[in-house]
Design goal:
The structure holds 2 protein chains of 2 kinds. Chain A is mainly α. Chain A has 3 domains: 3-102, Four Helix Bundle (Hemerythrin (Met), subunit A) (Up-down Bundle); 104-160, Orthogonal Bundle (Arc Repressor Mutant, subunit A); 162-252, Winged helix-like DNA-binding domain superfamily/Winged helix DNA-binding domain (Arc Repressor Mutant, subunit A), CATH 1.10.10.10. Chain A is built from 10 helices and no strands. In chain A, 33% of the residues are buried. Chain B is an alpha+beta fold. Chain B has one domain: Heat Shock Protein 90, CATH 3.30.565.10. Chain B has helices spanning 16-29, 34-50, 80-84, 97-104; strands spanning 3-10, 56-64, 67-75, 107-112, 118-125. In chain B, helix 1 runs antiparallel to helix 2 and helix 2 (34-50) runs antiparallel to helix 4 (97-104). The chains are: A mainly alpha, B alpha+beta. The interface between A and B is large, with 49 and 40 residues.
Chain lengths: 252, 131
């Protein structure tokens, strides 16, 4: 900011405050919309920092705009900061959460990401329709693609970051619904077999432990586990694989 | 249909996804369902993970009608035979490699070579796991 900008900036800040007052004190929704329009350029600027990371810029901007809305809603008129200053961490936080929740650890071609998402839905639907796990050929036919692309998209799943199973859909603050599944980690942890992986079992979160118990102690197929824990079958598959890998790594 | 496919790969974790992709392709040719394919991939992945990260491994696949037989090895014996012992079926029997394999494939076995290495056989049937 230059000195010559200051009067303009101050005027803008005063205008923001008046709009914020009208929104918060008078319930003027139009004032809120005006504030959003006035600060969309901030969202665009911040969103561009996260461009080329495998997500369309428009999507990032939309997520950032949610952060802006939250900042407007939470702003307290007694604050000594400008709305732009207050909104910046809100917008960035929302964008970062989006990337964390999407979970793409590395850049994966968008087409494969999309195919991966469609595939998960197709597997659920076909499993329900067929009453069994669909073949790759059936999945590829349903999605009008080739079996090779399906296999490649399945492999893309391993590009997901290690999202904690305790992280609910709304973020870190959410309670883990699977805390209610199974009261104790009995069974695996009682084993004294030196070849066992149990020493690392305790390092998993409650949902991971619950899923491993269901799969390897109770012998439930993925589809039943998915239904019990409210995840897709593909997600359950990824979590089993990741949990076993993490346990192995833990043991060195 | 009876086809044989052989693969030799480094035991480096970086090649894990390559092996998994090939196993997936083979399972697809056998018309395995998603979960069966995933199970076979997991079995081989866990087996190779227990075999360390040095050297090479050979995988031989035999595709039959609705089944895939896989031979993996020789793998260096460093507690692998212990880990592969048949799982204790009782509650609290422990999450061992043997238990993982017993869950995700229809049968498995292993033998020690004259050099003291381990050869593992896996058999996976299409539709072995009900939906």
């Amino acid at each position: 900011m230059t000195r010559t900008d200051e009067p303009t900036s101050e005027r803008a800040s005063l205008a923001d405050r008046e709009l914020l007052r009208r929104y918060h004190d008078d319930g003027d929704v139009g004032a809120r919309e005006t504030l959003v329009r006035r600060h969309l350029s901030l969202v665009h600027t911040l969103a561009r920092r996260y461009a080329n990371r495998g997500e369309p810029l428009e999507d990032i901007e939309q997520v950032g705009a949610i952060g802006l809305l939250k900042a407007i809603d939470r702003f307290e008129l007694g604050r000594e900061v400008s709305l732009a200053t207050y909104a910046t961490p809100n917008v960035l936080g929302e964008i970062k959460r989006h990337f964390r929740d999407k979970g793409w650890a590395i850049r994966v071609p968008r087409a494969l990401q999309e195919l991966n998402a469609r595939m998960s839905q197709a597997i659920e639907r076909l499993t329900s329709e067929l009453g069994r796990s669909p073949s790759i050929a059936e999945i590829s036919a349903a999605l009008e693609t080739t079996p090779e692309e399906i296999l490649e998209a399945l492999e893309v799943a391993s590009a997901y970051t290690t999202l904690s199973l305790s992280t609910g859909p709304g973020g870190e603050g959410d309670a883990d619904p699977l805390d209610t599944i199974g009261s104790e980690d009995e069974g695996f942890e009682r084993c004294e077999n030196r070849a066992a992986l149990e020493p690392a079992f305790a390092h998993l979160c409650s949902r991971e432990r619950a899923i491993l118990r269901m799969r390897f102690e109770e012998g439930l197929p993925q589809i039943q586990i998915a239904a019990q824990v409210g995840l897709s079958q593909m997600h359950v598959s990824r979590l089993i694989r990741r949990s076993l890998g993490a346990m192995r790594d833990q043991l060195g | 249909m009876s086809e044989r496919i052989s693969l030799e790969a480094p035991l480096d974790a970086a090649f894990g996804p390559v092996v998994r992709l090939i196993v997936g392709g083979i399972a697809e040719r056998a018309d395995f369902g998603f979960e069966d394919l995933d199970d076979l991939q997991l079995a081989i992945e866990r087996l190779l993970a227990e075999a360390g990260h040095e050297g090479r491994v050979r995988l031989d696949f035999q595709l039959g009608a609705g089944r895939i037989r896989t031979r993996v090895g020789p793998l260096r014996e460093s507690g692998l035979a212990d880990a592969l012992q048949a799982p204790d079926a009782s509650p609290g029997g422990g999450l061992t490699l043997g238990r993982i394999l017993a869950t995700v494939v229809d049968s498995y076995g292993f033998e020690l070579t004259s050099e003291g290495d381990v050869l593992v056989r896996l058999e996976k049937l299409a539709g072995g796991t009900p939906a």
